[in-house]
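Progress narrative, Year 2. Work on Pyridine nucleotide-disulfide oxidoreductase from Colletotrichum fructicola advanced from sequence curation to structure prediction during this period.
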Amino acid sequence: MASLPQSGILLEAEEFQNYGGWILDSQFDSEMGSPYLLAHGNGKPVADATTVLSTEKGHYHVWVRAKDWVPDHHPGQFTLTINESTLDTVFGTNNEDWSWQYAGIMDLPHGDTSVMLHDLTGFCSRCDAIFFSLEDTPPPSENNDEARAWRRRLRELPENPVDAGSYDVVVVGGGIPGCTAALAAARLGNRVALVQDRPKLGGNASVEIGLSPRGMTSTLIQELSQRHTDGDLLAKQLLDAEPNATLFMEYTVYDAHLVGSTITSLDARHARTGREISLSAPTFIDCSGKAVLGIFTGAETLFGQESKSMYGESLAPAEADDMHHGHTLFFRTKMANAAVSFPVVPWAIEVAKDYSDLRGQLREPGLENGPGPFVVPPNFVPDPTADMRMKGPLTHFWEYGQWLDPYTNGEHIRDHLLCAIYGTFHNVKTMEPENYANLDFDWVAFVAAQGEFKRYKGDYVLAETDIRDHKAFPDAVVQNAGAFCLHYPGEEKYDFRLRAWEWDERDKKPYDIPFRCLFSTNISNLMMAGKHISTTHIGGSNAKFMANGGQHALATAAAAHLCKKYQTTPRGIHDNHLQELKATTGNLGQGIWDRKSDNRL
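Result:
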């Protein structure tokens, strides 16, 4: 720590009193070290973010942690104004990833000091923090424990997480599976903590993203998946009203602790305050979709595609590899009453090339696959061998990151998709200005719909053959339904569009999920629900549907209840109380599958 500034004023961007048009982006905390403010204006500069802080009179060095997210082009630029004096430095222009940019020396008074972030472009300027120092030593540039401790000390936060209580079960992840697990366990009489890293519940179904839950649903899943008029899910209202449930919103899990093979507690950090808490329980259910607890506990996991011979899967590749489903970014356009200008975006054209098809929009939360402008590019020659299925206006055809590590490249994947959308939008407007001069963005998500991460390994790994053959499992606890849905990454030219898509409805009948797929094979008190259950890549392409994940969640909630009742582990429930588990799960609601609704493509 001797090489770091020992004193100064650290102003985290999330601490600004008025965000203006900037938005808090906390989804890449584990990658770059902190939440940050994002000027997401789709080419229109957003309103200033402002705050006031208390300072002592002095001669301060000023540092700003920012990112030039497209080096050499600098699409996201902003300035910093302190006490109505704008610094000369334009941030986001240094051709570097997240780094501290030096902005010079400024005299600050004793008392109130006003600070303002002024966006110049509307194209995702981003500011993490501002540091005022009496020393000329730069702040820590790395995302590591030393940098975390430095920030914690300057913010006068406790060195260790604060005990936030002990619960009967802790659920991680507030998507459809997590909300289902928390609500079901609470209604069974258990004290439940639900840890969600976003300000909204629902995961890929949340109002931030907007997909609709598919697969085998139930009355409870349908209840919490209803939407308010603003598109937000009813889930939070239901959980807030449940006396046995406690919500920890905007908390990101960053560590977990074990005794032997048993998790005793997890640590989580609040996005806006930096407050760190510890939650303990005898049972944990991971519904994050990312196997978050598995990363911190050493749980056995699976990743990528298994080979055809490994499980005898007809849809698997000949050789195993790390290809997985990528992320998707949704958007919606509109026709304004007058012409709408849009900046020249050469940095986005580098990604989009001459692509000019804006079909596949999210029409509203829960209603995807919408139409949009489509312009045939000059000198276009259709590919006679192209799959006709790929010509439809489907939302999920915008996808990227299938060959990248989703844990360390999330921000890059999101940014690449933003470039693709902005470049395509520019192409449509410039190729046919007579038709699309009035075209404008209505909404572009800044939170990507999450694709595939690691999957847990349970005592059984569900495979394609189990689903096709309707294998009878003695420990079947719920059913799933729907098609095998496999996405294949785009070619070099349009790497943000799927090359092919497999939608195999098999015999269109539900199939059984064994309980052994819902608890970790080597972490004794860890269960999972959602797309990261114990399954192959092919099997997971069906089990991944959100309503299917809700079914897993019902079984894990019932199991957590019985773990408390019998003071045992999930495997103990499997070995000694299986019939009671089936009955308890069934009492939480029978599965419902509306195949016509599920196949709304």
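The mean pLDDT is 94. The chain is about 25% helix and 25% strand.
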